[in-house]
Amino acid sequence: MSRILIVARSEFLTLVRTKAFIIGILMMPVIVGLSIVFQIFAATHTDTADHTLAVVDRTGALYDDLAAAADEHNAHGVSNGARTGPRFLLTRVDPSGQSPAELEATLSDRVRRHELFAFVEIPARVLASSAGANGKDGDDEQLAYYTETPSYTALSDWIRDAVSAAVTSRRLKAANVDPDLVKTLTRPTRVTTLGLVQRNADGTISEAKKTDALQTFVVPFALVYLLFLSVMASAPQLLTAVIEEKLSRISEVLISSITPFQLMVGKLVGVASVSALLAFVYLAGGVYVLASTGHISAIQPALLGWFAVFLLCAVLMFGSVFVAIGSACSDIKDSQSMMQPIMILLVLPLIAAPVILRAPGSTIAVVASLIPTATPFLMLLRLAMTPPPPLWQTWLSVGLTLGTAFACVWAAGRIFRIGLLMQGKPPNLPELLRWIRQ
Amino acid sequence: MTAIELRDVTKQFGNQIAVGALSLDVPAGSIYGFIGPNGSGKTTTIRMVMDILAPDRGSIQVFGKPSRSPVRDDIGYLPEERGLYKRMTVRQVLRYYGQLKGRSLADLDRAIASWLDRLQLGAYLDKKVQTLSKGMSQKVQFIATVIAKPRLLILDEPFSGLDPVNADALRDAVLDLRRDGTTVVFSTHDMATAERLCDRLFMIFKGRKVLDGTLDEIQAAHSQNVARVRTAGGVAILDGLPGVARVVDTGNAQDVELSGDPQQFLAALAARTAVYQFELKKPSLHDVFVQIARPTPEDLAVPAGGGR
Predict the structure, then answer these.
(1) Which of B47, B85, B100 is nearest residue A257 as measured by Cβ atoms?
(2) Nearest C-alpha of chain B: how many angstroms from A230?
(3) Fewest CB within a 10 Å sphere: which of A97, B108, B193, B221?
(4) Residues A413/A264, Cβ–Cβ less than 8 Å
(5) Handedness of CA A26, A28, A29, A35 (dihedral sign)
(6) What's chain B's Rg over C-alpha atoms?
(7) What is the ipTM of this complex?
C-alpha cells in the first residue's frame, strides 16, 4: 500500500473511531429531527391553557361581538378532541361606579392573584368614525392591554384583531356599508409562482410546474450547510493532530520513514475521506427522506457531483491551511490567534448565503462566488438554485478554487516541512513566507 | 563496511553553524556513541543522517548510498522526547510504524508477537497506549523503532526514565541486535552507559568533532598523569614529595596529579612509606566530557546589552 494511503487510512480510522465523531454523526440527525418535532409540537401543543381576559368595554357595545369571536377562536383550537391551542375566556367588567385608576388597580391585583391572565380597556372613542389628524387612530382610540406576562403576545394580538374586526364592522354599518360586501370586494389576490414553460423536441409544450419552497430554499441552503459541517467536522482536527504529533515528536519519527509532503498529503486524504463519509451519510439520509416524501425532484443528481467537487476543494484548501498552522505552532494556544482569520473565511460564505439566495444573479453574488475561499459554498448555492449560473462562471470558479487549493497544499507542504522541526515561539507572517520560499 | 559516512558536512541555521565540516565513519555492526552537550549539534547530525534535514555542504552516505528514501527504510529512530498515539492500541501503533517502513502486515504481526513476548508486553497487544505505564510505553516505542528490522538503529537516550530491570532488558535487546549485525548509533548524556556499551565514541562540541575513537584511545589521549595512591603515611606523607603537582584527598586514598615521571614518583614514595595501592588513573569519559565542555569565562560572560 502506498505510504500516503497508509497515513490516510490511519488518519481516517483515528478520526472516525473517536466517540465524538460517532456520537456526532449519529446525534446530528437525531438533534435536528428532535428540534423539528419539538418545534412542531411546541407550536401546536405547548400553549393549551385557559387565559382569562377581563374586558372593560367603555363603548358598552363591543363585548358581545368579542365574546362570539372568542367562542369561535376556542372552537378552532381543538383537534381530534384534544386542545391544540389556548382558550381565551372573556369576562365582562362593568366600569361604572369606580374611578379608572381604582378599577385598574383592582384588576391588576386580580391578575397578580392569577384570577385573571390580563385585562383590556376599550376606550369609548374606538367606535368613532373620524380618524385622528394623521389618518390613524388617536391615542384615545387605543386599547390598553395590561398584563404581567408581556412576552405572551397571542392574547394581545387576538384581542387587537377581534376589536378591530368588531369596530370596522360597526363603522361600516354606521356608514351604511354592508361589511360582507366590503369583505368580498377587498379579498386579496393570490400569486402562484411557476417555472418556465418547456418547448419539447416534438413541438409539444410542457406545462410549467409550480415552484417549490423545498427546491428553491431548503435544498440549496441545506447543501451549503452540510458542506460547511463536513469541512468543520474534520479539517480543524488536523491542526490539533499535527500539534500533538509535533509535541510528542511522533512527527519526527514519521518523517524518518516518509517525506513531510507525503505525510501531509496522507493526512489531507484521510480527513477528506472523513468529510466525504460524513457528507455521504447525511446526503443519503436526505435523499431517502426526499424520496420517501415524494420530493426527490427537489434535488438534481448533478448537484451531488458538484457537491463532491466543492467538498474536495474546501477540504484541501482549508485542511492544508490548518496543517500549516499546526506545524508552525508549538501549542494549541498559539494556534488560536492564527485560526481566527481562517474561521472567519469559513463562516463568511454562510453569512452571505441569504443575500445570494435572494439575488443569485446579482453582481455581488457573481463576485462572491468567484472568490476561491467562498466558491465551494456560494457557487454550490447558486448551482442549487434556478436559474443556475452560466457555465463559464461555474468552470472559472472550479478552476480558481482548484488552483488555490493546490497552491495552499504546496505552500502548506513547505511550511510543514520546516515547522515540524521548529520549537518555541510561532513564526510571524514574514517568517512563514520565508519558509515557503526556502 | 561503513554504515554511515559523513564527509565535510556543514549545516548552518542563519548565522549559527550547527555542524561544521564534520567527517565521520560509523563502522557497520558497531555500537557508536554520540556524546556532546545540549545544543552541540548531535540532533542536527542525526537529522541529516535520516534525511530530515539536508546539509548545506558535504556528503552523507548510509550503507554506501545517499541517505535518501529508500535507505530510510533501513533506519530505525528513537527520539529522546517520546510519544505514541495514545488512542491507538499497541498492535495498531506497531503495525502503523512498521507499514510506513514498507513491511508487510504478515511479517509485522510475527515480529510484534515476538518482541512483545520478549519484553513481557504480550498481554497488552490490544490495550490502548494511554492505559500503559511510562515504562511500558517506552518499551513499546523501542519496539516500534526496531519492528521493521532496521540495519541502522539511532537511539537517543533509550534508557532514560527506565527502572534498572527494564533498562537491562532494553540493553540486552540492543546488544542482541548488534550481534545480529545491526549498527547502533547511541546518543546519550549517560557517560557510564556509553563507556559500558559503545565500541567507539564520537563527541561533538559547538558543531565540531572533538573526540572520535575507542574508549582506550580517548582515555590515552586525555590522560592527565594522575595516580591514585593508598599508603601507610596517608595524605601527610605526600607533603613536599618531588614530582607532586596537586593532591586531592579522597579519604583513605589520594589522587595525585604528577608533574614528572610516575615511576620516579613511586620510587620516592616507597622510600618514605609502605605503599598499599598505586594506580595510574585513566580519565573517565565523564572527566573527558567535562574537561572539554566545561564553560569558559567567555561562555559565562553576559553579552553586552543581553541578559536580565
Answers:
(1) B100
(2) 23
(3) A97
(4) yes
(5) positive
(6) 24
(7) 0.78
